[in-house]
Amino acid sequence: MAIQTIQSIRVHEYGGPEQLKLELVPRPTAHEGEVLVRVHAAGVNPADWKVRRGWFKDFLKVQFPYVPGGDLAGVVEEVGPGVTTFQQGQAVFGQSSHGSYTEYTAVSVNTLALKPEKLSFDEAAAIPVGATTAWQGIFDNGSLQPGQRILIQGASGGVGLFAVQFARWKGAHVIATTSTANVDFVRSLGAETVIDYTKNDVEPLVHDVDVAFDTVGVPTLLASLRAVKRGGTLVTIAGQPSVEEAQALGVLVTSFSARVSSELLQTFARLIEEGQVKVVLERTFPLSEAAQAQEQSQSGHGLGRIVLHIAD
Ligand SMILES: NC(=O)c1ccc[n+]([C@@H]2O[C@H](COP(=O)([O-])OP(=O)(O)OC[C@H]3O[C@@H](n4cnc5c(N)ncnc54)[C@H](OP(=O)(O)O)[C@@H]3O)[C@@H](O)[C@H]2O)c1
Questions:
Q1: Please, what is the Cα angle at 97 between 93 and 103, to 5 degrees?
Q2: How is the chain split into domains, by residue range?
Q3: Which residues contact 188 (CB under 8 A, 6 or more apart)?
Q4: Contact (Cβ atoms closer than 8 angstroms) between residue 213 and residue 239
Q5: Which of 247, 255, 205 is nearest to 230 (CA)?
Q6: d(CA 21, CA 66)
Q7: Superfamily in which the 130-254 domain is placed by CATH
Q8: CB distance 46 to ligand 1 below 6 Å
Q9: How does DSSP assign 167-183, residue by residue?
């Protein structure tokens, strides 16, 4: 008989990490165009604690109680009506709009792909939002071309580490920023120049890049803007610089919300299987320690993605 009750983290109201409650809830089912996934691992993104704090409430409606998260990796348990592209038992990774800090969740087939065989579930859960944001940031918004120079601020983070690797794969020259502890790591990703932001300011060192990709925000945005050549692009995912200064410098500033798709997930899986791109975890936590995981994410520092390890 199918399991009826599952463990899930749920949030009943906006607030601090104490709002992340581990509860027993009915097992969900897959609707039209969805599969039910037994979640083995869930990625912890900064957006997860920002939503929980209510920072996005003006443009993202949540229905309480909600299950946090979105990124996941697991095994297809059940196939919903109309689904022909996935089968029960397949190992998958992707993003659920119903939340991922849970033992089972429904996932649209449009945001799901087969898990790269060489990756663990924990590693695969670290990919969806981070890699998608990096790809759409530097290619779709930044139009990065082979041979161009790109500045990547926040290169050791869950987005930045993919941005460095994708830019190198494209044949761009990468200048990256990180703190002392992560310098060797960022160099190992392929960055030609790594600036330790705790020791050096970016502004006097970096000029005339074609593209700047800023994943940090307030502390770095101005230096990112001033590093871009006239006619170049600043892509920012964590804040907006002064419009007047951008206009005066002749720099196009773009920002966007990442949209996970099966096609992109398949591209990432292929690059990983080919050994072109690697995945790095900061740390794993059990589902019962989702609050500690989000608190660590909220620190804004570290190397790689934090993941909830939910099942072996
Ligand atoms: N718009 C979108 O669609 C979208 C999508 C994903 C993420 N985001 C946003 O993008 C931001 C980054 O996300 P993430 O997942 O990469 O976060 P993360 O995994 O927490 O990484 C943050 C990184 O920033 C680095 N950092 C902090 N201060 C820095 C500074 N002054 N200079 C250079 N690096 C610095 C940290 O490295 P150190 O430890 O070395 O300081 C850390 O590796 C978050 O604000 C997130 O909400 C937006």
A1: 60
A2: 5-127+279-309, 130-254
A3: none
A4: no
A5: 247
A6: 10
A7: NAD(P)-binding Rossmann-like Domain (3.40.50.720)
A8: yes
A9: HHHHT-EEEEEE-GGGH
Any ligand 1 atom below 6 A from CB of 70: no
DSSP labels, 13-49: SS-SGGG-EEEEEEPP---TTEEEEEEEEEEE-HHHH
- Return the best residue to mutate from 179, 264, 297 for the ligand 1 pocket (most ligand atoms within 8 A of CB): 179
Handedness of CA 30, 34, 37, 42 (dihedral sign): negative
Residue identifier of the C-alpha nearest atom 43 of ligand 1: 157
Strand partners, 106: 36
Cis peptide before 65 (omega within 30 of 0): yes
Q: What does CATH list as the number for 5-127+279-309?
A: 3.90.180.10
Q: Kindly give the confidence (pLDDT) of every residue in the chain, 312 residues in length, as a single tens digit, with 9 standing for 90 and above.
A: 567 999 999 999 999 999 999 999 999 999 999 999 999 999 999 999 999 999 999 999 899 999 999 999 999 999 999 999 999 999 999 999 999 999 999 999 999 999 999 999 999 999 999 999 999 999 999 999 999 999 999 999 999 999 999 999 999 999 999 999 999 999 999 999 999 999 999 999 999 999 999 999 999 999 999 999 999 999 999 999 999 999 999 999 999 999 999 999 999 999 999 999 999 999 999 999 999 999 999 999 999 999 999 999
CA 172 to centroid of ligand 1, rounded, Å: 21
On the 0-12 / 13-18 / 19+ scale of CB atoms within 10 A, 89 is exposed
Structure tokens at 276: 């072109």
Taking alpha carbons only, the member of 94, 2, 116 closest to residue 41 is 94
Query: How many angstroms does the Cα of residue 91 sit away from the middle of ligand 1?
Result: 29
